């Protein structure tokens, strides 16, 4: 893999990271806002459940696990800095790029929200689960939290469709 390809991959990670981080911050704000509304359609339990699920999708530190699984590397073969050894070039770039973005974001924002590898691994599934719960709980679709979840889920669908179209145009 050449430097240009590596830079492109890092740029794609940056774009995904920024958009998902922005959406997650919005969702956390909306959940906090629902907690203070007297007429919220959500129960306290539902809001806690949504908050916990979002924590999993954003804070989950599954990066090492996924890097190991993708590269069929035992967790016992972790090298310096808890990085799996024996990875191929693309996986190594992925792992290092994700770690770099996380470190930069945490330094830049100085937030209490601990953003980790979960934002790359679990986020889109978590958003869909939260949206499904809102539907199942019969939350009105015009509720701001429901609408933000629907928007975040659609953004993930659009991103995957664009990626698949690009791959198809490259002959994959």
At a glance:
This protein has 172 residues and is mainly α. It has seven helices and no strands.
Structural class: mainly alpha
Number of alpha- plus pi-helical segments: 7
Average pLDDT score: 75
Q: What's the alpha carbon Rg, rounded to whole Å?
A: 18 Å
Euclidean distance between termini CA atoms: 17 Å
As a percent range, the share of strand residues is under 5%
Oligomer category: single chain
- Main sheet makeup: none
Query: Unreliable runs, pLDDT <50, ≥5 residues?
Result: 73-79
What string gives the helices and strands in order? HHHHHHH
Q: What percent of residues adopt helix (DSSP H or I)?
A: over 70%
Mass-distribution shape: elongated
Question: What is the β-strand count?
Answer: 0
Q: Which helices and strands, and how do they pair?
A:
Layout: H1 3-36, H2 44-59, H3 63-70, H4 89-109, H5 118-121, H6 123-136, H7 144-169
What does this structure look like?
This protein is mainly alpha-helical and 172 residues long. The protein has a domain at 3-122. It is 72% helix and 0% strand. Helix 6 crosses helix 7.
Descriptive keywords:
elongated; mainly alpha; 0% strand; single chain; 172 residues
């Amino acid at each position: 893999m050449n430097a240009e390809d590596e830079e492109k991959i890092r740029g794609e990670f940056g774009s995904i990271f920024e958009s998902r981080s922005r959406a997650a911050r919005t969702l956390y704000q909306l959940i906090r806002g629902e907690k203070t509304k007297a007429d919220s359609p959500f129960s306290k339990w539902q809001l806690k459940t949504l908050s916990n699920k979002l924590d999993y999708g954003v804070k989950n530190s599954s990066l090492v696990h996924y890097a190991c699984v993708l590269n069929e590397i035992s967790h016992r073969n972790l090298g310096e800095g808890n990085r799996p050894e024996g990875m191929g070039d693309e996986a190594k770039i992925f792992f290092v790029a994700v770690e770099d973005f996380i470190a930069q974001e945490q330094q830049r924002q100085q937030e209490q929200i601990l953003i980790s590898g979960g934002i790359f691994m679990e986020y889109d599934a978590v958003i869909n689960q939260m949206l499904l719960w809102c539907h199942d709980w019969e939350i009105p679709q015009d509720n701001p939290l429901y609408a933000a979840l629907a928007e975040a889920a659609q953004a993930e669908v659009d991103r995957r469709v664009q990626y698949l179209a690009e791959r198809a145009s490259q002959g994959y």
